[in-house]
Design goal:
Number of domains: 1
Number of helices: 14
Keywords: Oxidoreductase
Enzyme class: oxidoreductase
Strand content: under 5%
Organism: Pseudoclavibacter chungangensis
Number of strands: 2
Bound molecules: Phenylacetyl coenzyme A
Helix content: 55-70%
Structural class: mainly alpha
Strand order of the largest sheet: 1-2
EC number: 1.14.13.149
Protein name: 1,2-phenylacetyl-CoA epoxidase subunit A
Largest sheet: 2 strands, antiparallel
Shape: globular
Radius of gyration: 22 Å
CATH topology: Ferritin
Distance between the termini: 43 Å
């Protein structure tokens, strides 16, 4: 922490003054340091983080559905065990992220209510069906791959609890991506039918995976401010480009093709050019009109209702623990 930031913090601690608090906040951001839950922060910063972190949490738990769909049909016991562990990891990511979001002041039941009533978004990618076993490979390679590309820079997000949650999440996502790669590699080097199945999965997931990075920069209302606050470190298009550059050689190693006739190395830019994505489709999906939106939300609400007894039991257990602690304290 620089001397300027330390002095400003002293002013804020001595007498609360909004201008001094804003100056302290600006200095922390300018210093590329971290805002913690008890620090003062502008309402708009709190709101944007609550939006992004909670939507990220919603994506993790809705993202369990396409893969959970294949647990009972995994081709071997080993594949089943790996897939179960991955789906459990996604639930864990949801838990870290809901906890991080709650430190911003909105309780979890309110965040979940926003998801269940369609007020909050979750990643567009999870509104596409998982039709074959090869989709487990494509989700791991492309969806987790895109998630890592997007999320590694978030480990340096200016809000402490979010950045710290992202560190562990990224480590796990990296394992997920490799298991997806390995499924696709085996299929693409298997029988002709298996290779066709792998190619078909990549064909269906490629475009939606690129759209996970969000709309193009000129149609992204939140990016500029989020970057000024050091929440996002790169724009949507910058990260999408990074992802394309990463997966083209990987696809070659897999001996699979990416379904984009415009993909070509651009010597001048030092990057791969790629074709225009279907943004009408993307905006339709995030408005709730994707192939699986209704099914995903209905399943989520059903799971939440079925879990009511667990929440009730946890509350009762916590109440008994508190009562026991209070009794011990009273005796002592
Ligand atoms: N889907 O102004 P921007 C995963 C919305 S986790 C749906 O560019 P921003 C793990 C956006 O919210 C995947 N909505 O917004 C896994 C905004 O609407 P709002 C999730 C989208 O926030 C793997 C509006 O469009 N990852 O995959 C999408 O600056 C396998 C305008 O957009 C994260 O959440 C979209 N793709 O940038 C799990 C990462 N893109 O909120 C299971 C953290 C944009 O104003 C299996 N989030 N929108 O109503 C972020 O980095 C950012 O929030 C972006 C969007 C980049 C997603």
């Amino acid at each position: 922490m620089s001397d300027t930031v330390r002095n400003l913090q002293q002013t804020v601690d001595d007498v609360f003054d909004t201008d001094a608090a804003q100056a302290y906040f600006d200095a922390i951001i300018g210093d590329d340091s971290r805002i913690e839950p008890r620090d003062w922060m502008p309402d708009a910063y709190r709101k944007t983080l609550t939006r992004q972190v909670s939507q990220h949490a919603h994506s993790e738990i809705i993202g369990m559905q396409p893969e959970a769909n294949w647990i009972t049909r995994a081709p071997s016991l080993k594949r089943k065990a790996i897939l179960m562990a991955k789906v459990q990891d996604e639930a864990g990511h949801g838990l870290y992220l809901y906890s991080a979001a709650e430190t911003l002041g909105t309780p979890r039941d309110v965040l979940l209510e926003q998801l269940h009533t369609g007020k909050a978004k979750y990643s567009s990618i999870f509104n596409y069906p998982a039709r074959s076993w090869a989709d487990m490979g494509a989700i791991g390679w492309l969806v987790d791959g895109a998630a890592i590309c997007n999320q590694v820079p978030l480990c340096r997000a200016s809000y402490g609890p979010y950045g710290r949650a992202m560190v562990r999440i990224c480590k796990e996502e990296s394992f997920h991506q490799r298991q997806g790669w390995e499924i696709l590699y085996e299929l693409s080097h298997g029988t002709p039918a298996q290779k066709r199945m792998a190619q078909d999965a990549v064909n269906r997931f490629y475009g939606p995976a690129l759209q996970m990075f969000g709309p193009p920069d000129d149609a992204s209302p939140n990016s500029q401010q989020s970057m000024a606050w050091n929440i996002k470190r790169f724009s949507n298009d910058e990260l999408r480009q990074r992802f394309v550059d990463m997966i083209v050689p990987q696809a070659e190693a897999l001996e699979l093709t990416l379904p984009d006739p415009d993909l070509a190395w651009n010597e001048e830019r030092g990057h791969y050019d790629y074709g225009e994505l279907d943004w009408d489709e993307f905006f339709g999906v995030i408005k709730g009109n994707g192939p699986c939106n209704a099914q995903r939300l209905a399943r989520r609400v059903e799971a939440h209702e079925n879990g009511a007894w667990v929440r009730e039991a946890a509350r009762e257990y916590a109440r008994k623990q508190q009562a026991a602690t209070a009794e011990t304290a009273a005796v002592a």
